[in-house]
Amino acid sequence: HRKNVVLITPEIASVYAQLQALRSVAIVDGLIAASARHLGAVLVTRNVKDFTGLGVSLLRVIRITISRRQ
Q1: Among the residues of the chain, which ranges form H helices?
Q2: Distance of CA 11 to CAs 21, 38, 45, 67, Å?
């Protein structure tokens, strides 16, 4: 649904440039972090190491597998 899409605005691009000045960040990770930071959102991920130190609130997701009894 379109309401769940975050467009890359000039403001988010500016935050992305600030993050790149802190350390080298993959483009996609940087844009995700910049979007979360600009929006004041919590970034939910299983891969917190890619976002650590970027000034973004992080929530680590742990994958849990539940087997069904037959």
Answers
A1: 10-22, 27-39
A2: 16, 8, 23, 45
In angstroms, the CA 52 to CA 16 distance is: 15
CA angle 57, 62, 66 (to 5 degrees): 150
- The 3-state DSSP class for residue 60 equals strand
Phi, psi of 8 (to 5 degrees): -80, 105
Range in 38-42, 46-50, 61-65 the model is least confident about: 61-65
N- to C-terminal Cα distance for the chain?
A: 36
- pTM of structure: 0.81
Q: What does the block give as tokens for 49?
A: 């190491």
Q: How far is CA 61 from CA 2, 38, 46, 64, 65, in A?
A: 24, 22, 5, 9, 13
